[in-house]
Amino acid sequence: MTAAEEVAPAKARRHRPKSPLMRTLRAALIGLRGEIRASELWLVGIAAAVGAAGGLLTLAARAGAHLIQEALYGQDFDQQLSPLYTLPLSRVLVLPLGGLILGVVTWLWVRRRPKTIVDPVEANALHGGRMSGRDSLFLGVQSVISNGFGASVGLEAAYAQLGAALASLSGGALNLRRSDLRTLVGAGAGAGIAAAFGAPLTGAFYAFEIIIGSYTLANIAPVVTAALAGALVTRLLKVEPLVIHTVVTDSMTLSHYLLFAALGVICALFGVLVMRMVGWTEQIVSVLPGPRWLRPALGGLLLAAMAWNAPQTLSAGHGALHVDLALDLAAGALVFLIITKAVASVVSLGFGFRGGLFFASLYLGALLGRLFVVGLTAIDVDVGLDPMAGSLVGMGAMAVAVIGGPLTMSFLVLETTGDFGLTAATLTASIIASVIVREIFGYSFSTWRLHLRGETIRSAHDVGGLRTLTAGRMMRADVPTIAASAPLLEFRRRFPLGSARRIVALDPAGHYAGVVRVAAIYAETDEKREVAASLINREDWLRPEMTIKEIMRVFDRTESDELAVLDDRGDVLGVLTEAYATRRYAEELEKARRDLVGGE
What we know:
Blueprint: H1 3-15, H2 20-38, H3 40-73, H4 89-92, H5 94-112, H6 120-126, H7 133-148, H8 156-173, H9 178-197, H10 200-212, H11 217-236, H12 254-286, H13 295-309, H14 318-326, H15 331-350, H16 358-378, H17 387-402, H18 406-417, H19 420-440, H20 445-452, H21 464-467, H22 471-474, E1 481-483, H23 488-494, E2 502-506, E3 512-517, H24 518-523, H25 548-558, E4 562-566, E5 572-577, H26 578-597
């Protein structure tokens, strides 16, 4: 028996389940995979289980952060952190301590796993829904530390990350199709949001608009089921959701809708400013001297200084939102709260605290909407608007400007108030905000952070297949070449008419010199002329890392049907034809279309 024959049975024994129970479980798993691929009902059932588990993870993360706040700030179990009006200096000094702990923990983690953590939007856009469970759990830990110590960030990013990662791991174990896995990831993220707010419609449309990037008949059942399961967990465990239940008595008129459209414009501009400020702050912090792990501690010092004078800048702002909406705040107080909360959120994210702007944007929008109504009243413009209506519409519009998802935020207002007229006003302001942000900025907060890392995606639409269509992957490597100095007689001897359409010519150093058409050579009468006299595309070629869209732009500009692919030194790696690139592009677009409509 050969060595290979001895190794093969050993490998088989090593991978074979060791007990009848394990073999039975493996056979059941294989059978379940087949059933899931054959019936969408199985996917709905799995989504329900993932949604319930995602809801539990959401409540666990929330409880963890709240326990840290109880221990550090001495608050009661049923008390929020941000509504506090005064804090002793000894309490706010825990912020730099939290930054130091976060910095050290992150430094130790990055030494072992230097890759950037993939969030649900990036996973669905580029990786077919594949996420790392360990990385996502660590992001949850980072968010709990940041929020628990009082940094001005929300846990909503952790809720979505944990739910989506659980869904990704479950779908990977069941070997789901790419489209089904992306749907399940969106369902898990939506379930986390639904559990946090006790709002299943909000969670479902968060998944549709922000995580999956589309709303289709193929994904509605699993996503809605997961969101319902996540919200039901919150209700069964009698946990108070983050949503604010209130009543607005105003009847919406045409003038009100026009005013709220103007509020949408204001929220869009302010949201873009906040996102820009986060990016600018990160750039400034990145050039500060000293070790990277000290930066969150420095940010904690700045946050402590702000929290000593304005405790409502602490944490995400859930409690502060409840309190401030119930008070009749003057314009000066509203301006102070808006500025301090925005600066605290920018400092928190810019200096390395982990979390999101979801609830901060809701809080800022509520304050901005109330300031809008109070400001109109102050200048004697009688619009007959309840400040609470302005707060709720501003809350939705500001969140859309930063996070995206007009329907998501409109349903949040609907589930908050039950008022369809106010929901329509929120949708009006949200659409205006969304259009303006897309026009002048082009990103939501999550895709803006990806842009700062060098990515170009603008939504969760699946472009992973298109990103793999690079010139290096599609090129033909067996390239016929000839020296540019060769006479036409030699060319005709080596390449008879009909043997090829184009040949790549090389300079004396063996680098790319251009392309020559075979037919053009045979049209020449002077056989002593050199090939160099007939070269085309001397300055036009492709790089192996070019994506399909970049490739097609080069083909359109050069009006050539075949281009060489070169490395950085100018050596020829292969050639790519426009016909083949176009066909592969069409195949990927058709695959995306089938996924969108739920086809096989």
